[in-house]
Q: What sequence folds into this?
């Protein structure tokens, strides 16, 4: 199981997080059939979003990012929740170039009790981490050092994925800020670092610390046949009958996990038989 390790260093003045996202990124690469370039962009965004999601207060709070840019991967969307269940998709799974192009990043945080928070910023770099660092500088007015990477085996499959995150707390001394920056500098070219060691091992060895908090991370889509059936019934039977007449079946594709759900005439009969009079299938 992938892990997120968290602790404080520099006398409690700097938050340090390490993420081992190997299984999540490998799974994502397989289900979305991604080239190395697409897997690296997607994997690094999945890893940063796991970090950002670990600060969510409620387990049902949800965080999403949309990387809308003109690079070869095209649009990349990733969502995560307070349980660190992550999911997403890449517009172009076949990209050969991992550079982020011109465009915008939009972050949406939904805490389920008031209007969602939406933050947008321009892409300022061809590098995933640098764009997120810029986002943090704008939104939190705090420097946050983000180092993520994905390494590959000889078959082009994700060998390791992960990241190291350093964030000086508000009021941190200049010395603490400086040492966070120096540590981050030591972890540049993170994909190379991952060829030898997982991020969580780097955390323990480089910083000589133990985690005060350890959490599981998992690639998990929210879709299910029941969920899709609920969405379909809300469309009304007449419209669905028309699709069945034209296509012979209703096919629903989930972009997040690349699953297909097929509904035939007899499935519809069953759905609408079970439906309660107020139209609510739950
Ligand atoms: Zn799905």
A:
């Amino acid at each position: 199981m992938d892990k997120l390790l968290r602790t404080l260093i520099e006398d409690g003045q700097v938050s340090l997080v390490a993420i081992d996202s190997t299984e999540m990124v490998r799974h994502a690469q397989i289900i979305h059939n991604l080239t190395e370039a697409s897997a690296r962009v997607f994997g690094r965004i999945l890893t940063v979003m796991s970090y950002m999601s670990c600060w969510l207060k409620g387990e049902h709070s949800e965080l999403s990012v949309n990387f809308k840019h003109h690079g070869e991967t095209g649009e990349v969307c990733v969502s995560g929740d307070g349980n660190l269940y992550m999911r997403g998709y890449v517009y172009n799974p076949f990209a050969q170039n991992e550079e982020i192009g011109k465009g915008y990043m939009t972050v949406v945080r939904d805490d389920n009790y008031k209007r969602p928070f939406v933050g947008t910023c321009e892409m300022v770099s061809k590098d995933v981490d640098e764009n997120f660092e810029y986002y943090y500088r704008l939104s939190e007015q705090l420097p946050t050092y983000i180092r993520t990477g994905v390494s590959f085996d000889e078959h082009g499959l994700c060998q390791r994925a992960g990241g190291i995150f350093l964030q000086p707390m508000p009021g941190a001394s200049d010395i603490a800020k400086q040492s966070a920056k120096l540590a981050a500098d030591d972890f540049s070219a993170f994909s190379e670092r991952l060829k030898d060691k997982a991020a969580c091992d780097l955390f323990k060895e480089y910083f000589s610390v133990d985690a005060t908090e350890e959490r599981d991370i998992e690639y998990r889509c929210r879709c299910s046949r029941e969920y899709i059936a609920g969405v379909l019934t809300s469309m009304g039977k007449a419209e669905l009958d028309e699709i069945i007449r034209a296509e012979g079946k209703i096919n629903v594709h989930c972009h997040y996990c690349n699953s297909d759900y097929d509904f035939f005439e007899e499935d519809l009969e069953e759905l609408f038989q079970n439906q309660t009079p107020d139209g609510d299938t739950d």
Remarks:
- The mean pLDDT is 93.
- Residues 225-274 form a domain with the CBS domain Like fold (CATH 3.90.1280.10).
- DSSP finds nine helices and twelve strands in the chain.
- Residues 30 and 214 are 26 Å apart (CA to CA).
